[in-house]
Automatic annotation (TrEMBL):
GO molecular function: electron transfer activity; FMN binding; menaquinone-dependent protoporphyrinogen oxidase activity; oxidoreductase activity, acting on NAD(P)H
Domain of life: Bacteria
UniProt record, GO biological process: heme biosynthetic process
Domain Flavodoxin-like residue range list: 4-172
Protein name per the record: Flavodoxin
Organism: Eisenbergiella massiliensis
């Protein structure tokens, strides 16, 4: 049987929620990033890494990229949660820049739209968002959709977005 391990890095809970939704649908185990060093990779056929996108970079992805050599021979996938709208052409481009061409060929990468949670955000991330908001305001104006989209918390996460990842995981 295909044994799946999901290692996830979450700051405000979106990535964790998606990981839990995957667990409801598949035979997988979850491990938070903080406990990544306890993983026994030999016990799994498929390793999935999940993290939020942070100024273009998938949280914790450096660690996963280093692990990829050790994990060669296993099925590898990454899912990234983010505030980018699902219909825009940006997600694919933004995610691709996290990997070398060679790594990209060895992976399946999925984008899962999530949202923003100002209540759970740490101080540094709040400050970053404040800077981003003021840039948006200058560039697009206070009434623009783009500015309003980053001005308050919202949650567009949905099990619907998980379908391609679930299909991939169930293929074997
Ligand atoms: C400082 C900061 C930067 C972010 N940058 C991006 C980004 O570049 N692209 C994006 O789609 N979402 C971005 N987001 C939104 C997060 O990726 C989104 O809320 C994600 O689901 C968080 O996952 P987590 O709660 O599991 O940590 C950013 C959020 C913060 C707080």
């Amino acid at each position: 049987m295909n044994k799946i391990l999901i290692i996830y890095y979450t700051k405000t809970g979106f990535t964790e929620r998606y990981a839990q939704w995957v667990r409801e649908e598949t035979n997988c185990e979850l491990l938070p990033y903080s406990r990544r060093d306890t993983a026994d990779f030999t016990a799994y056929d498929t390793i999935v890494y999940g993290g939020g996108v942070h100024a273009g970079a998938i949280n914790g992805i450096k660690w996963f990229r280093k692990k990829m050599t050790e994990l060669s021979g296993k099925r590898l996938a990454v899912f990234a949660t983010g505030a980018m709208p699902p219909e825009s052409p940006e997600p694919e481009k933004a995610l691709k820049q996290n990997f070398s061409e060679e790594e990209w060929q060895k992976l399946k990468v999925f984008y899962l739209p999530s949202g923003l949670n100002y209540e759970k955000m740490g101080a540094v991330d709040r400050a970053m968002m404040a800077m981003f908001r003021s840039l948006m305001k200058k560039k697009e104006g206070e009434d623009s959709e783009a500015y309003r989209a980053v001005s308050a918390s919202y949650d567009i996460s949905s099990k619907e977005y998980l379908k391609p990842l679930l299909q991939y995981l169930k293929e074997n």
